[in-house]
Design a protein that fits this description.
- The radius of gyration is 14 Å and the shape is globular.
- The longest helix has 20 residues.
- By secondary structure, it is mainly alpha-helical.
- Helix 2 packs across helix 3 and helix 3 crosses helix 4.
């Protein structure tokens, strides 16, 4: 999943969403800034959560994450991005999980 997430963030979702959805993400990125990119990633994971949790192995999870974006239309993305995680929730989650993430990376 790290590999795919890196591709999403470095390419700003180019070739990972339908074109009209990509353009909306780019518009929001230029208007609102970098936080839009993280919100889109979180929204996509939230939308595919059920499929990921039902997966039996890492290869299946990889395929779900790699292909899922193509199924998300801009209306669905925009409806969920608005009701998604707030900036204060992201900040709280970062603070709460920072030590866990660093320990995991050290391993």
């Amino acid at each position: 999943v790290d590999l795919l997430l890196t591709k999403w963030l470095i390419c700003l979702f180019v070739n990972h969403l339908p074109l009209d959805t990509e353009l909306v993400v780019w518009d929001l990125f230029f208007i609102k800034g970098i936080q839009v990119i993280f919100r889109v990633a979180l929204t996509l994971f939230e939308l595919m959560q059920k499929e990921i949790l039902e997966a039996d192995d890492p290869g299946t999870i990889y395929m779900i994450v790699d292909k899922f974006g193509y199924k998300v239309d801009r209306k669905t993305l925009l409806q969920n991005i608005v009701s998604g995680v707030t900036n204060s929730e992201i900040k709280q989650l970062r603070e709460t999980n920072r030590v866990l993430v660093f320990n995991h990376l050290r391993e």
